[in-house]
Amino acid sequence: MKSENITSVREFIFLGFTGSLRIQSLLFLIFLVVYIITCLGNVVIITITRSDYRLHTPMYFFISNLSFLDLWYTSSTSPKMLANFLSERKTISFIGCITQLYFCLSLGVTENFLLAAMAYDRYVAICNPLRYAVLMSKRVCIQLVIGCWFTGFLSIVMPATFIAMLPYCASNVINQIFCDISPLIQLSCSDTHILEKLNFITAIIVILGTFFMITVSYIRIVSTILRISSSAGRKKAFSTCASHLMVVLFYYGPIIFMYIRPNADSSLDLDKVMAVFCCIVTPMLNPIIYSFRNKEVKHALIKVISRKRMFSLNEAVR
């Protein structure tokens, strides 16, 4: 036992980012702008991929699902964090904390599987172009997306249940910006050695497992691209993967640092920075990356804007 002073914890207090009221207000404005940009960016991606028939392909089907996922992923942490910047007591109820933990981690795991599915889509498109329509049919794409969501939410049920059943000591201060596994385990009064190992193994299987699948897919993709005779063909083939590859690098860097460490106790302060990048910055960057590095998305966006302008002019004339 870590301590004999076991209490019934009804709420937790986020340590978050400390500082004066002026600094807290500035952080609130910064993260509010980031959250608004994230929501607008992902809604735009979803809208244009649904409205433009030229984007009704497997690749854009996965991109729209990634935007939908990122919309909820950042919303699982940002609203509460924004409210805490303006509050003297940065508290969250016990039930609220476990709920946030479950949804944030479930959505994060789902993103791992979805990025792996997107890598498989690019692998089939470049390495097996003649069979692409069969291997990546609408039915297969829907099954892959459903599988990603189902596996993501199912895999966190057991860890979240164990965390909820832990006895907690007198301290209820979470050294993080949201309810995460590592800081909650540190507050427990019980022996959490087995639970820490279980969570570490789960993280290795999910994070490194999907990252390995993505890596293998891109090794095969690069090998195929290098065998293309024309430089224009190589450039075109690589351009279809560049956006996804950038998203993968931005996403996996922080989560590997946060969760693939046997001993995370000494790096919780740095974990807060990684958590901001993973849960808040990356969901904002994803639609920007897909917009600026993809001609089809840019053309569809211009088309939607032009259509809205024409509609506004017609309404003004009336």
Outline the structure in words.
The chain has a single domain, classed as Rhodopsin 7-helix transmembrane proteins (Rhopdopsin 7-helix transmembrane proteins), CATH 1.20.1070.10. It is mainly α and 318 residues long. It is globular and about 65 Å long. The longest helix has 34 residues. The chain is built from twelve helices and five strands. It is 75% helix and 4% strand. The protein starts with 5 loop residues before the first strand and ends with a helix. The strands form two sheets. The chain has a three-stranded mixed β-sheet. The relative contact order is 0.15. The N terminus is likely disordered.
Secondary structure blueprint with pairings:
Elements: E1 6-7, E2 11-14, H1 21-51, H2 58-75, H3 78-85, E3 91-93, H4 94-127, H5 132-135, H6 138-155, H7 157-165, E4 168-169, E5 173-174, H8 181-186, H9 193-226, H10 231-259, H11 268-292, H12 295-317
Parallel strand pairs: 2-5
Antiparallel strand pairs: 1-4, 2-3
Helix pairs in contact: 1-2, 1-3, 1-11, 1-12, 2-4, 2-11, 4-6, 4-7, 4-9, 4-10, 9-10, 10-11
> Strand fraction band?
under 5%
Identify the CATH homologous superfamily: Rhodopsin 7-helix transmembrane proteins
Distance between the termini: 75 Å
- Please give the domain count: 1
Any idea of the CATH topology?
Rhopdopsin 7-helix transmembrane proteins
Helix content: over 70%
> Over all CA atoms, what is the radius of gyration?
22 Å
- Protein structure class: mainly alpha
